[in-house]
Specification:
Distance between the termini: 39 Å
Strand content: 15-25%
Helix content: 25-40%
Radius of gyration: 19 Å
Order of helices and strands: EHEHEHEHEHEEHEEHEHEHHEH
Structural class: alpha/beta
CATH topology of the domain at 2-146 and 175-203 and 261-274: Rossmann fold
Strand order of the largest sheet: 3-2-1-4-5-6-10-12
Low-confidence stretches: none
Number of strands: 12
Amino acid sequence: MYAITGITGKVGGAVARELLAAGQPVRAVVRDATRAEAWAERGCGIATAFMEDPSSLAAAFEGATGVFILPPSEFDPEPGFPEARTVIEAVCAALLKARPDKVVCLSTIGAQADEVNLLTQRTLMEQALSEMPMPVTFLRPGWFMENAAWDVASASDDGVIASYLQPLDKPVPMVATADVGRVAAELLQQTWRGVRVVELEGPRRASPNDLAAAFATVLSRPVRAEAVERQTWEALFRTQCMKHPLPRMRMLDGFNEGWIDFESSSDEILRGHVELETVLGELVSRRT
């Protein structure tokens, strides 16, 4: 049996669907059982647990062949990442008590970076889970293609996407959540020893200009990318009700300056199958 956290989200749901398609038993780990009714109808077991509560997590992980950890994302963390540290402590305690056979944890590109930024939350998780007694795999995907959901309205209505990724012609490793879920499910069904890191991106890298061109193809209208000037970021993020925008700003700096990147050589990085235009087409169709 595979216990899947975050199953009501895109990645966790993709992991569960892949495992079910392979004939594997799945336990949906959710905060609210009423949100998991569709998974129960698919034949999943249901466990109610909170990512900050080691006791409920341990019960959810009990008897699992493998556990998929999808840490909750905190986009406006307090200084020192206390929210992430609480989850990390609970997950580690639960794993030590339940002792599943293996763990796959969703991490991120650039988790190895020394510079403190929004993704440091995943760095801290990797450091803690690396000490677990069971085999652990950290799956580090690139920039999610689905982040372009923020650009659908402006691309559709105005033919413009505002880009914090710069310069506009710099390719960035991007990947679809469907590919992330598929690969995570494959990793869960493998056997390995110790700790390993698996890095994943899509079929090809895409710059902000490439993203605009893909939107233009999907929308059948001209679309261009416009850079958002660095000196305006803090004020803009604060208008979005962020209290602590610096970690997000430093994450974007990391992509733009190149210190958030993959560790592996290009021939070692896994490649997904889902094209950027496919994801954008789905995002646009949901809006319409």
